[in-house]
Design brief:
Layout (H helix, E strand, L loop, with lengths): L21 H4 L18 H30 L8 E4 L15 H4 L3 E4 L19 H8 L14 H5 L9 E5 L8 E5 L6
Antiparallel strand pairs: 1-2, 3-4
């Protein structure tokens, strides 16, 4: 089976703070003790906004854990591939929808039976267009010639492997056209 869960956490408007359940998620983030990203202006409002964002991420993490627990309860986890990915950077100025790293670089967390080094980190460039070819390969299906992505499975076997020399991004939005583009290699962003 294939299941795609698209979460509302962490999307504005934040609702995690008012719906917080400390017994499930743990303590909320303290705005005063946060380390802000370098581009942020350090004000009490910014700190509170960023803390609320982190609370949303923490709540999302809890719900991912609920899915993992249910898969384990049904004895399905050991034969399941799980991808946790964001489609854009954080929803803050100089981030979401921008063609710099704060807007395009996101976490991609994967687990599954063919991952040789669970918990390993990689610096390999990947793109969301690589998800479909990966799923097709893991399912034993052929990739159509028109599919642009590349399978992530070499990275599953060796975290130092590289599947692409460049990652491309574009600036677009839901209700207007924007035609910005960027390309990143391991060192440079253009």
């Amino acid at each position: 089976f294939f299941l795609w869960l698209a979460a509302l956490d962490a999307h504005r408007a934040w609702d995690g703070d008012r719906e917080w359940k400390e017994d499930l998620y743990g303590p909320m983030y303290n705005p005063e003790s946060l380390t802000l990203p370098p581009a942020f202006i350090d004000t009490p409002e910014t700190r509170q906004d960023f803390a609320s964002y982190l609370n949303e991420v923490t709540r999302f993490d809890y719900f991912v854990g609920q899915v993992v627990d249910r898969l384990k309860e049904k004895d399905l986890f050991k034969n399941t591939y799980l991808f946790v990915v964001a489609d854009n950077g954080r929803p803050f100025p100089r981030a979401k929808t921008r063609l710099i790293d704060d807007g395009m670089k996101t976490y991609f967390i994967a687990t599954g039976p063919s991952i040789q080094n669970p918990g390993a980190r990689t610096d390999s460039l990947i793109s969301v267009i690589d998800i479909a070819p990966t799923i097709l390969e893991l399912a034993g299906l052929e990739k159509a010639e028109t599919l642009q992505g590349r399978s992530l499975t070499p990275i599953y076997e060796d975290p130092t492997a590289s599947i692409r020399p460049y990652a491309f991004s574009e600036h677009n939005w839901h209700d207007y056209e924007a035609h910005g583009r960027s390309v990143r290699d391991g060192r440079w962003l253009y």
